[in-house]
Structure prediction request, 406 residues.
Amino acid sequence: MCKLHKSLYGLKQSPRARNQKLDAFLKNIKFMKSEADPNVYVTQVKDVKFFIVVYVDDLILVCNDQNKLLQIKEELSQKFEMKDLEELHFFLGMDVERNRDEQLLRINQIKYLKEILKPFGMEERAIGVPLDPKVKLQRNANGNDESKIFPYQQVVGSLMYAMLCTRPNLAYPMSVLSQHMANLNMEHYMAVKRIFRYLQGTLQMKLQFGATPSKEVFGYCDADLGGDLEDRRSTTWFVFMIGGGVISWSSKRQPTIALSTTKAEYMGKTQATKEAIWITKLMMDLGYMEEKKMMVI
Amino acid sequence: MQEEYESLMTNNTWTLVPLPTGRKLVSCKWVFKIKQGPNGEVEWYKARLVARDFTQTYRVDNKTFAPVAKFTSIRCILSLAALEDMEIHQMDVKTAFLNGELEEEIDME
Prediction:
């Protein structure tokens, strides 16, 4: 029999063991682990900044100095068996494209979305609004057979991933749809169909970063009052931007019932402020903010 | 298969020891896959030795948590990189799970 020293595929401990080894190595070559996100590593010597983002076995290396980048890559390759994919083009289902002359970077999931839409063969015309404002989805709907065979849960799950990666415009529709995972009827089915038609029309849209040359972080938040007609809970949404690029977004039904717009707004503000605190922390770890200041409107 | 086996060997993944009494073993097996190119042609044959973790006894001190990065931090760093015109490169670890050193003692096969 064998006594294992290193982890193998399939062991419950394997992902952790790998992560810890990488962690120890990066700390050894003078990288600091970010407190806000433990998968972000930072080092800065004078003007040379270096960030590493770790996603399981994928590493994104960001540096403003070519030589330093090559040096770190070399060190990593010596320690681990690595594949150098050169410039970032594709990451976790997202396509990344850059226009360095104009300092723009765009991410998109056109391929991924096409995969989702493909089985449903969309021939109908595209539509501009993802949810029908006249329709309020019912929670205890008794659906007929046709809506039961539709793989609602899977589709909502796939769209959810797209929303989390590159589609802030789906945040609200997804928060509505994901509140109805059981007891479906034709209306739910039509709502998903409508999102497909909306995606059809917005398929080529990309998320763009670097539009305005400012590294200030801005946040916007808002709330409605009792938007959910069945239990009268309010919905809060917020969005955060750096230099004209949207980096964080959320749309959530509030956990408690607000009695006035003021109260609903306050609760929304709290959610947004929590996110703001976290982003501030991350920015400080990355060496971009000296003090805690951020504007949330 | 030879390549994977050599990788396991050069990594000193295991040593042979006599079975200590009272210990449970984890079994393992080889998994083979044919990797296909975009036109369905055979690109390479992949072999991997996997541990069958369902034969592992569950212990409370099995530490299995491993973090992954948030999408927000990835987007945050990408936007800063775009603004500062920094280099963005990607690397991946080839045999991702073979590289970690285990904290606990595990006996196999």
Q: What stands out?
A: The mean pLDDT of chain B is 68.
